[in-house]
Amino acid sequence: MAGYRVVVGIKWVPNTQAVRFDPKTGTLIRQGVPAIINPQDLHAIEMALRLRDAYGGEVIVITMAPPPAVQGLEHAIGMGADRAILVTDRSFAGADTLATSYVLARAINKVEREIGRVDLAVFGQETIDSSTAHIGAQVASWLGWPYIYYVKQASLSNGSLRVVRQLEDVIEEYEAKLPAVISVLAKALRPRHVSLLNKLRARTERPIITWTNKDLGLDTRCVGLKGSPTIVAKVTYLPEVPRLKKVHKAENPREAARWLLKNLLSDEKTRDLIARALWGEGSA
Amino acid sequence: MPRVKCEDLCPEWPCEQPEEFKNVWVYGEIEPGRGIREPSLQMLTPARKIAEKLEGKVVGLLIGHQVTAYADDFIKYGADEVLVVDDERLKEYYPDVYGHVIVQLSLKYKPEVILLAATMRGRELGPYVANTLRAGITADCTDFDVDEKTRDVLLIRPPFAAIMLAYIRTPFRRPQIGTARPNVFPLPPRDESRRGEVILEKVDIPKPRTRLLKRIRIEKREVPIEKAEVIVSGGKGLGSPEGFKLLQRLADMLGGVIAGSRKAVDAGWIPPERQVGQTGRSVKPILYIAVGISGAAQHMIGVREAGRIVAINTDPDAPIVRQADYSIIGDYREIVPAIIEELEELKRKGPKAIEELLK
Ligand SMILES: Cc1cc2nc3c(=O)[nH]c(=O)nc-3n(C[C@H](O)[C@H](O)[C@H](O)COP(=O)(O)OP(=O)(O)OC[C@H]3O[C@@H](n4cnc5c(N)ncnc54)[C@H](O)[C@@H]3O)c2cc1C
Ligand SMILES: Cc1cc2nc3c(=O)[nH]c(=O)nc-3n(C[C@H](O)[C@H](O)[C@H](O)COP(=O)(O)OP(=O)(O)OC[C@H]3O[C@@H](n4cnc5c(N)ncnc54)[C@H](O)[C@@H]3O)c2cc1C
Question: Is-contact B49 B144, C-beta < 8 A?
Fold first, then answer.
């Protein structure tokens, strides 16, 4: 293959705004919760597609998840990814980020053995459900590859990668030897839409393959719950913050404003603050 | 009987017993030429709490070039000891290079806990260190506790939908690693009389495989909303970016800053660094005025520590009304100008106007 092989990690996440709780057991009700591709992963897919379109090669999208996540892979194929891999096995359930990244790294190794050299692994900045931003760095650690987070532009030449990334206080440009791992800055790009033609391809060419642990052959002590150093010990509701809950229905705006200021100026917590803002230090 | 049975562990992990580990480390992120960044110093606050319960020391970690001088700051803000790797080859921060330095120190000293500030660099560095050590890491903790019997740290983080807390522990692996967002914990008071030991370490420094070509500083933004005493925050209900101009006038009168909900950020009315909530910032102003914000759980988790919350909303049934101290039910386009006018009148009349108003 001429060009570069780019692997993109994506996650099929519950659309968390719609998540409900079982008040009796205190657990999540996942059943019937609509799911989406993690929004920031669309930017990772977009960056990989742009690299392929510019330099040739192929984009392989990968996810470790239960089978319904195949919808996310179909979406990625619809955007133009060349193939996709669903990595799924009962023994992978309950994985923390270390165990998740372990399976992903070993799957990338398998791509290298069976499909060919991987030049770049691309991830989204973080997910909307648990938002750890761990996976990219952990995959880099397992693979022994260099990594750069928060990338907003990337280009390739002669086996090396050039990126621009943005942090709180700086914009930086780096060069990295391939293979490497990057994560894409949130909202960095304008992800393309699914095209009908590509979607049709997903139906006819069947570019989505499934690997289970039969294919990967990983020690079951290293995956899923058993391979996870972190354990969720318990989950509790956040206690409600006590608030005064005084309500004023405004008939007349000036009167409503006076009601508010009266309250704020007779309230120990805010009185001095307002006085200081209006008349300066020492007026309180 | 040993707590960790080696035959149960993934063979890719080292088999170690928790008792071999002691002390609480805080990684000090450096602002080149300036010193330790404040979010790292803030981590000394939870580190002290954990160290007291574990009867261990708080150890600061400094990595870079010409950073030894900053050890003193670490101690004055509460570290008992500082571990320094000061080397010219560490002049530039590369996460895998710095990561390997921390990993080697950790293999030698065996800390029981490592805390990092969840700045963008900390979020990049932490998981690499943890993974290379085959240790667990919990992101964006909002609190820490200790199970004194097992010496497990409980790393507490807000999970789904912002209404439940998850308590995470790593019973079979050490060090226990956690991060927390800037300004979640206060900066400990600086104590000029504190003294502590500074240990200079030498470790192998791998060659970087990435190379910095260029760096441009971005203008430091004005008052970060996390530090403001008054925040006037706008939501979708403003209906347009012009609404924020009105909110800015109110904020100016009160010596405050403006912020917004995610919908306001998504609409492009206000920049992302001013978003309040689960995927934005947690703020603790004395006064939080929420205008045209419905009060979704993901928003309200960011204002739990606000002194007083004022809501201005057309809908008496909006969830925020049940979670505010003072709510005005009305159209902000009338209410906010009226508040500004009343404030201007008070300002003109001087402090004695308070008595008149309170009559
Ligand atoms: C409430 C809650 C809190 C949690 N907290 C922690 C914690 O603090 N520490 C911890 O170790 N685990 C934690 N977990 C477990 C963690 O959610 C899973 O391991 C998850 O699969 C990956 O983490 P993430 O969603 O944070 O991904 P991130 O690291 O935020 O994602 C970065 C990139 O990696 C990609 N990616 C993530 N998962 C996969 C996958 N399965 N396949 C392909 N690509 C993927 C994402 O799409 C994204 O592009 C938590 C789980 C829950 C439910
Ligand atoms: C994983 C996840 C993370 C999230 N993180 C965040 C986060 O960090 N921060 C955040 O804010 N949200 C977050 N959200 C989104 C959150 O769930 C809500 O959708 C969002 O907070 C709603 O924004 P809003 O209150 O501005 O808009 P809306 O919910 O649309 O509310 C608008 C309000 O304005 C009122 N209004 C309308 N016209 C007027 C008027 N003329 N005068 C006065 N009031 C008026 C309406 O009555 C209504 O109450 C997150 C969601 C998810 C799923």
Answer: yes
Among the residue ranges A5-19, A113-127, B135-149, B283-297, the one predicted with the least confidence is A5-19
> Are A170 and A269 within one domain?
no
CB of A63 closer than 8 Å to CB of A72: yes
Q: Give per-residue pLDDT as tens, A22-38.
A: 655 555 666 677 899 99
**Element spanning B336, H or E:** helix B332-349
3-state SS record for B148-209: CCCCEEEEEECCHHHCEEEEEECCCCCCEEEEECCCCCCCCCCCCCCCCEEEECCCCCCCCC
Structural domain ending residue among the three candidates A168, A191, A222 = A222
Alpha carbon of B347 to ligand 2 centroid (Å): 33
* Same domain, residue pair A211 and A253: no
What separation in Å is there between the alpha carbon of A223 and the centre of ligand 1? 14
**Cross-chain Cβ contact A270/B287 below 8 Å:** yes
- Note whether A270 and A165 are same-domain residues: no
Pocket test for ligand 1, best of A100, A125, A151 (most atoms within 8 A of CB): A100
A82 and A188 fall within a common domain: yes
Q: What is the mean pLDDT of chain B?
A: 94
> Cis omega (within 30 of 0) on the bond before B175?
yes
Q: The whole model's pTM is what?
A: 0.90
Q: Are residues A250 and A217 in the same domain?
A: no
Q: Which of A77, A140, A133 is nearest to A108 (CA)?
A: A140
- Residue B172 and residue A167: Cβ atoms within 8 Å? no
The response to whether residue A107 sits with its C-beta less than 6 Å from ligand 1 reads no
- CATH of the domain spanning B230-358: 3.40.50.1220
Identify the residue whose tokens are 């490592």: B114
Paired tokens of B285: 């102003």
Domain that holds residue A284: 243-284
Our CA-based measurement puts residue A204 at a distance from the nearest CA of chain B, in whole angstroms, of: 37
Do A62 and A170 share a structural domain?
A: yes
Q: So where are chain B's domains?
A: 9-200, 230-358
For residue range B143-202, list pLDDT tens digits in order.
999 999 999 999 998 766 667 788 999 999 999 999 998 888 999 999 999 999 999 999
ipTM summary value: 0.91
B300 alpha carbon to ligand 2 midpoint, in Å? 10
Which residue out of A27, A270, A283 would a mutagenesis test of the B interface target, given it has the greatest number of B Cβ atoms within 10 Å?
A: A270
Looking at domain B9-200, its CATH architecture is: 3-Layer(aba) Sandwich (3.40)
Judging contacts by C-beta atoms under 8 Å, the chain B residues touching residue A166 are 218
pLDDT in tens, A98-111: 999 999 999 999 99
pLDDT in tens, B349-358: 988 888 888 8
